[in-house]
Specification:
single chain, mainly alpha, Recoverin, domain 1, 3-stranded antiparallel sheet, 10 helices, 10 strands, about 40% helix
Length: about 300
């Protein structure tokens, strides 16, 4: 039966909630089905939003989440500190370029004749039949990678997409390219190569922001959620030092035959993978169901896994 959140009992235990066909909720306590009482505290995601804990006066403790895989639990989300515009997060703490200030030198990248535009023209689709001169696609992207001596799978390319605020994988528009190169402080191949050491040194402190950006960036056009097959290729890039990464990827690949990863799961995985051990997992916090089930799966199949 479906998991509809949890109830926190007076003795501190957290038990899963289930829904009857008549719409009421119950939990299994010692082998018996106990109907959820209005005064009991619900954690997680019941199928319909309802007030618990004493009505309107109960305050924040009595509020529960509606069934929505894209809803973000209040407690862990505060730790995630999600910027409403993640494409700009973290850039203010990074400066590139040369000169006495060490910052980005001023340059005009908005003019069609600017150095950045001339550079972009080398990779645009203008030479392709019916191609758009203001768009760079896969072929141009590969040439760009070759010119700047960066492999396509290098994290630098994800960092560049993040700075460009790119909306689609393997595509840069002229406007996006201008935006990114202004932040990098580059206007041609050589100036970009001079910034590479600074870009690489900035990566560790920007990984979380780039990770959050990737959810929308890596989605297929017109699709609301990120495909599992894409997510499992991205997770190793960000979580290569997480001991549970391989176990998580295998679990996510097989999980309930799902084809998509909910956004709250993608986001809160940042918090989850920072836990020192599974013993530090607090089941009474409103984690996404997929993470909750992963912990339960590990406890059953690999009890010695830390």
């Amino acid at each position: 039966m479906a998991n509809h959140g949890k109830v926190k009992l007076a003795d501190g235990r957290c038990l899963k909630l289930y829904k009857r066909s008549n719409g009421s909720y119950y939990y299994n306590d010692g082998g018996s089905r106990t109907t959820l009482k209005p005064t009991e505290t619900v954690i997680g995601r019941p199928a319909t939003a309802q007030s618990v804990g004493g009505g309107a006066g109960a305050g924040a403790r009595g509020r529960v989440r509606a069934a929505n895989d894209n809803a973000i639990p209040a407690s862990p989300a505060k730790r995630a500190r999600i910027d409403p515009n993640p494409a700009l997060t973290g850039f203010s703490s990074v400066t590139f370029g040369s000169g006495a200030s060490g910052g980005v030198s001023a340059m005009d990248t908005s003019s069609p004749a600017s150095p950045v535009d001339i550079w972009f023209n080398n990779y645009s689709d203008a030479s392709v039949a019916d191609g758009d001169p203001d768009v760079m696609t896969a072929q141009g992207m590969m040439q760009l990678c070759e010119d700047i001596d960066v492999e396509p799978e290098d994290m630098i390319m994800l960092l560049l997409a993040y700075y460009c605020e790119a909306s689609e994988m393997c595509v840069f528009t002229r406007k996006e390219f201008r935006t990114g190169m202004t932040k990098v402080g580059a206007h041609d191949v050589q100036s970009f190569k001079r910034q590479l050491p600074h870009l690489r040194s900035s990566l560790p402190r920007q990984l979380d922001a780039i990770y959050l950006f990737c959810y929308d960036f890596a989605k297929d056009d017109g699709i609301k959620s990120l495909k599992v097959e894409v997510a499992v290729q991205l997770w190793p890039l960000f979580f290569q030092n997480w001991p549970l990464c391989d176990a998580w990827i295998k679990f996510a690949t097989d999980y309930e035959n799902r084809q998509f990863v909910p956004k709250d799961t993608w986001t809160l995985l940042l918090d989850f993978r920072k836990l020192p051990t599974l013993a530090d997992f607090d089941e009474c916090q409103a984690w996404p169901v997929m993470i909750d089930d992963f912990v339960e799966h590990c406890q059953k199949t690999q009890p010695n896994l830390k």
